[in-house]
């Protein structure tokens, strides 16, 4: 590994390699019992407000995380903070401004979600540094840390694009897409469905997004597939990844797999797993289904449906047909 411009060899065993990595990240204060030498004297802690570089602060923070953070949290922090070290690691922390951070995000070509995650990671590290009396205040105070509404406009797939996705998807992803297309459910709802929730041609979900029980009505192809999945998985979620493991509820794996499928099909970036829920609601409304019925099928209220899911502006044919019915034309 490279640390502060120097190459270091880690152990072959994964757990031991993490121990060595954190020892190196801790700097001169880390133990060196594996080399037979006495541990070096701990580096003096700077007084609040003293000049501490980004590299030094990141190393201290990651070393502290080795005690109280899990493996995935440490890897995530090391990845994002490592980018900050390469961007302005030798600069003093109080000298880093919000403009510097924004410039780095633009230079690295980060998506809005990645930039927001990095900002939050920086804020968490600075808050820890304030508690440890390493710095006086967060130098990026005032930086916007709320999630962006959406980095790009959501796109409703056309029937041809839906057929392309289903044709090129893996069996596990095809099952997921068919459930989303035919039911209009949220991805997280599909991930939670179990054999116990299957009741004939419907799912009886114990709780929906609003905390109330929710009934989801199934098409014939989804019902048949659910019966097959229930026989294979009598306990636990029905819909699973190709390796048989459950889809995580926050869907990072599903989103990544769908993103790669979308790229292989050459489809617009705005098509996401959530696009099929919007497509379900918009198609139902454009075909004249009352908004109260569509809202019940989607597990929402009519007000939320009209505010967020009714993309009728993109359905010109449906609007023209409605106008003909209004005027009594054939």
Secondary structure: elements and pairs:
Blueprint: E1 2-3, E2 6-7, H1 14-25, H2 54-68, H3 71-88, H4 98-108, H5 112-131, H6 159-168, H7 171-183, H8 187-192, E3 198-199, E4 202-205, E5 214-217, H9 220-232, H10 252-265, H11 275-286, H12 291-298, H13 302-309, H14 316-327
Antiparallel strand pairs: 1-2, 3-4, 4-5
Helix pairs in contact: 1-2, 2-3, 6-10, 7-11, 11-12, 12-13
Structure description:
The structure is a single chain. About 50% of the residues lie in helices and about 5% in strands. It has 14 helices and 5 strands. The strands form 2 sheets. It has a 3-stranded antiparallel β-sheet, covered by helices on one side. A hairpin with a 2-residue loop joins strand 1 (about 1-5) and strand 2 (about 5). The protein is elongated and about 75 Å long. The N and C termini lie far apart (about 75 Å).
Please describe the structure with a list of short key phrases separated by commas or semicolons.
330 residues; mainly alpha; two-stranded antiparallel ribbon
Report the order of strands and helices.
Answer: EEHHHHHHHHEEEHHHHHH
Report the biggest beta sheet as strand number plus sense, adding barrel if it closes.
Answer: 3 strands, antiparallel
Radius of gyration: 26 Å
- Average pLDDT metric: 77
């Amino acid at each position: 590994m490279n640390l502060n411009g120097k190459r270091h060899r880690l152990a072959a065993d994964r757990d031991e390699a993490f121990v060595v990595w954190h020892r190196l990240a801790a700097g001169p204060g880390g133990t060196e019992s594996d080399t037979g030498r006495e541990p070096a004297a701990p580096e003096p802690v700077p007084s609040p407000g003293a000049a501490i570089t980004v590299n030094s602060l990141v190393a201290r923070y990651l070393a502290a995380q080795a005690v109280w953070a899990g493996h995935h949290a440490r890897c995530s922090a090391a990845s994002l903070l490592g980018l900050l070290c390469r961007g302005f690691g030798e600069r003093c922390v109080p000298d880093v401004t919000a403009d510097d951070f924004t410039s780095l995000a633009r230079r690295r070509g980060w998506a809005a979600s990645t930039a927001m995650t990095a900002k939050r990671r920086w804020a968490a590290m600075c808050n820890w540094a304030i508690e440890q009396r390493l710095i006086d205040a967060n130098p990026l105070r005032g930086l916007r840390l709320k999630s962006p509404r959406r980095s790009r406009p959501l796109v409703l797939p056309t029937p041809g694009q839906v057929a392309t996705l289903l044709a090129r998807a893996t069996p596990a992803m095809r099952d997921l897409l068919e459930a989303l297309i035919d039911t209009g459910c949220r991805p997280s709802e599909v991930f939670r469905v179990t054999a116990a929730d299957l009741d004939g041609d419907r799912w009886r979900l114990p709780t929906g997004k609003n905390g109330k029980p929710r009934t989801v009505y199934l098409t014939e192809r989804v019902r048949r597939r659910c019966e097959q999945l229930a026989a294979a998985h009598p306990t636990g979620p029905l819909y699973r990844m190709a390796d048989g493991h459950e889809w995580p509820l926050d869907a990072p794996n599903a989103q990544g797999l769908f993103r790669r499928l979308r790229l292989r099909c050459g489809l617009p970036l705005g098509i996401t797993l959530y696009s099929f829920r919007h497509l379900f609601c918009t198609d139902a409304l454009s075909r004249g289904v009352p908004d109260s019925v569509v809202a019940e099928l989607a597990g929402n209220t009519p007000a939320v449906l009209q505010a967020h899911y009714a993309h009728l502006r993109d359905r010109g044919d449906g609007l023209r047909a409605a106008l003909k019915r209004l005027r009594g034309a054939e």
